[in-house]
Design brief:
Two copies of one chain form a homodimer.
Chain A lengths: L2 E4 L3 E7 L2 E8 L1 H9 L5 E7 L5 H9 L3 E7 L5 E8 L2 E11 L19 E4 L4 H10 L5 E5 L2 H6 L1 H8 L4 E5 H8 L4 H10 L4 E5 L5 E4 L4 E4 L13 H16 L4 H18 L13 H15 L2
Parallel strand pairs in A: 1-4, 1-8, 2-6, 4-5, 8-9, 9-10, 10-11
Antiparallel strand pairs in A: 2-3, 6-7, 11-12, 12-13
Helix pairs in contact in A: 1-8, 6-7, 8-9, 9-10
Chain lengths: 300, 300
């Protein structure tokens, strides 16, 4: 079934040990959508500025991503300038952000899209996330991502939101910051207590931990030998996870594990190139080939 | 088949968020032996001081560990004082070391023990490790561990040694320091180029990476919800790995994977208590029960 995704659409300047790229199409919703579209019909809810290049809109359309609820605001597209250092490719250093049209953004969801059963709230202000949640009618599966900025500065809004979602994805640093627990098992248990029945902690190159009352499991990451640009890896992961679950319909242990394996596979492509250079080229066949390699790498 | 283990026997003072314990029986060979004894006959090669408590020798004997090649030197037992901070339970901070009888130690191997086919060189000065290697006659499987001290200060000795061993175990920090590579896949590849055909990179709470020309695989760690004292976890891991391989005899992909799973299981017990408090109590049945839990946690 189809999927509604709220988040940012951005223009990124990214510096990594592999180079420096300007004006990359980025943002949490962008990376999520480019991943989830491999599984299901993706409907984007986002805001862009008047400077947003037409070719990017065309890319979304060519990839089958519905743009009905993408609005153009009176100003510039959200911008993020970031850097990754060789010593710690897991951590993005934010050099600058320019909110532009993101300031004051209120999600506008087309009437017929309010019935979409699967919703993902990618990283954006939790009050904006709550706005979308109020606009959807009968959500079946709701996923949520956030970041340290909101954990530190909009904790109450985030906690309210967590009571209303099924699935919460966080990286290890965010899980530790939100829970106050250093041990990730304890952190996951704490996050479970905040509401979401499924907790997914992404550990970058170290893989992923899934925690719920019934199922607990962990998988390593795919062994990428050259990380070019990790920007959007977490969103790409979440796109694979929610995309597969939306397609699967019935969610049991097997479906959850398969979703996490797909998510891991997709994230591995993302980090191998700047921006969307790898993920926009993916086909189901390419993804499944690497998924088989991953399964060989992690199977006993 | 039986196993010869060279390394340190120490008295440790350890401070962790769970408490402060003095005069714990520790050292690389000690933790290794307490783990490997669950699989095979273990023969210790080490030096102790005149202050070494008799009850510790009795513990080794009760656990079936052969002490023929443990010598008493004219001085005090090697001492290590260390601490782990809550923020990073993966990293031991060395507060003090007193070499004592370890200074000038030359391994003495009883004549009949020189034919033991499986040899592990646990962390100790690489020149001492080379001394043992020269004393053994027809080694079939040789494993090696080291630490940053030797990587930085006795690199040439360590590199000479690496040409002569089959299996090299290192934690992620050591693998990065020795290879100069940040990416662990690249680091493992580099270490493979130094000689050992099997490279095992231990990542603490994040699990383990195995790298060889033919087989590459990774498993997560067992989800320990309260790490009490990580001292000796790497040695306990290596003990399970070499212990199982010594018992298995034939080494193929299945045996290597099973060895890594056993090693992971044993390390998880080690960190749950100070010193040997958990590992000295282990039986094969207890280990196999947790191994089944681990397999459930990591299986697709």
């Amino acid at each position: 079934m189809s999927l509604l995704i709220l988040g940012t659409v951005a223009l990124d300047n990214v510096k990594t040990p592999s180079g420096f790229k300007k004006n990359l199409l980025g943002g949490s919703a962008t990376h999520f959508a480019m991943s989830a579209r491999l599984f299901t019909q993706v409907n984007l809810v986002a805001v862009i500025g008047r400077d947003f290049p037409k070719q990017h809109l065309n890319l979304f359309r060519r990839k089958g991503i519905n743009l009905t609820s993408v609005v153009e605001g009176p100003g510039k597209t959200f911008r993020w300038d970031g850097e990754y250092k060789k010593e710690d490719m897991n951590t993005a250093l934010t050099l600058a952000t320019e909110l532009g049209v993101l300031a004051g953004f209120v999600p506008q969801v087309a009437a017929h899209q309010r019935n979409i059963p699967n919703v993902f709230l990618a990283n954006i202000d939790p009050d904006v996330q709550m706005g979308l949640l109020k606009a959807v009618r009968i959500p079946k599966l709701i996923g949520l991502d956030s970041m340290n900025l909101w954990i530190n500065h909009k904790r109450t809004s985030l906690l309210n939101l967590m009571k209303k979602v099924d699935l919460f994805v966080a990286n290890d640093g965010e899980a530790r910051a939100l829970s106050g627990e250093t041990n990730l098992i304890q952190a996951a248990k704490y996050l479970r207590g905040l509401g979401p029945k499924w907790i997914v902690i992404k550990k970058g190159e170290h893989g992923v931990l899934f925690y719920s009352d019934r199922y607990k499991f962990s998988f390593p990451a795919y062994p990428v030998s050259r990380v070019v640009d990790p920007t959007g890896a977490g969103d790409t992961f979440a796109g694979g996870l929610m995309g597969y679950l939306s397609k699967a319909g019935k969610i049991n242990e097997r479906a959850l594990k398969t979703a996490v394996i797909y998510a891991t596979t997709l994230a591995s492509f993302n980090v191998e190139g700047f921006g969307l250079s790898k993920t926009a080229q993916l086909t189901t066949a390419i993804v499944q080939k690497r998924m088989r390699e991953l399964l060989k790498f992690i199977s006993y």
